[in-house]
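@channel sequence for tomorrow's demo:
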Amino acid sequence: SALGGALVLAAADLVARAGPVELPVGVVTAFLGAPVFIWLLYRRNTLAGGR
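structure tokens (generated this afternoon):
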């Protein structure tokens, strides 16, 4: 888990520095993490018998 998080953060740092303007790493990780978080919420609701 720690290794996976480190790899994701390193990849986000590379993406943040790749463009013509350097973005904050938090913005890049939010764009990566938000869809995963929404998917986890959807999956939890589906497995719990929700709609």
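heads up for whoever presents: The chain has one domain: 2-47.
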